[in-house]
Design brief:
Blueprint: E1 8-17, E2 27-32, E3 46-49, E4 52-60, E5 63-68, H1 70-74, E6 83-89, E7 108-118, E8 121-129, E9 141-144, E10 147-156, E11 160-167, H2 169-174, E12 185-189, H3 192-201
Antiparallel strand pairs: 1-2, 1-6, 2-5, 3-4, 3-6, 4-5, 7-8, 7-12, 8-11, 9-10, 9-12, 10-11
């Protein structure tokens, strides 16, 4: 479990195929951990990369490696190329829940429609898949590239759902959201509690 409060911005520095010249193979990512403290991280521990929970398979001083399957690559954005990533270590029961409960399982990909300065903050508008619309609510929580954010507006259409978020300057400074532009794909995770409420209220579960 995670909180969606990014602990550090790291960088994928290299990628190698897990299969010999196989386009369907997954990748091993070498990640520079930046300012993330790895002293309490061991092999098999979980670290969120841009909102996707990954398992540490190799540890280096100030860096680590993870394996990501082709299925996960097909369902996420920003993990198939060299570049910056938001990092968060798995939550312990002794820590504050600064964001909200996050599983690190990407539910879908969103498309940035607009990202521009509004006053001292920034407005981020994302088009989400229609299948996620019922989980998005005014003042509800959503995870974008591993960052816990609050929904300010939701507009449903026949084929999708558009939501708006106010991003404060601090979040811009300490996460990779500052690099977003219209057209970029982002990893989305819906609120965990909303997922369970839907299941409990579904006719199949009665």
């Amino acid at each position: 479990m995670f909180t969606g409060i990014v602990a550090a911005v790291g960088r994928i520095t290299s990628l190698s195929s897990l299969g010999a010249a196989d386009s369907n193979a997954g990748l091993r990512l070498h990640v520079d951990a930046g300012s993330l403290d790895l002293s309490d991280v061991g092999l098999g521990d979980s670290i969120s990369l841009n909102g996707a929970c990954m398992t540490v398979v190799v540890k280096h001083p100030g860096a680590f490696e993870v394996d990501i399957s082709r299925e996960s690559l097909n369902c996420t954005a920003g993990l198939d190329a060299v570049g910056e990533v938001n990092l968060e270590k798995a939550l312990t029961l002794a820590e504050r829940l600064g964001g909200h409960l996050v599983s690190g399982h990407v539910d879908g990909l969103g498309a940035v429609q607009r990202f521009e300065a509004v006053g001292e903050s920034w407005e981020l508008v994302v088009e989400a898949p229609r299948s996620l619309a019922k989980y998005l609510a005014f003042k509800g929580s959503i995870v974008v590239n591993g960052v816990s954010l609050t929904v300010n507006r939701v507009v449903d259409t026949a084929s999708s759902c558009e939501f708006s978020i106010n991003v404060i300057p601090h979040t811009i400074q300490v996460t990779t959201l500052r690099h977003l532009q219209a057209g970029h794909k982002v990893n989305l995770e819906i609120d965990l509690i909303a997922r369970y409420v839907e299941r409990m209220l579904s006719p199949e579960a009665q």
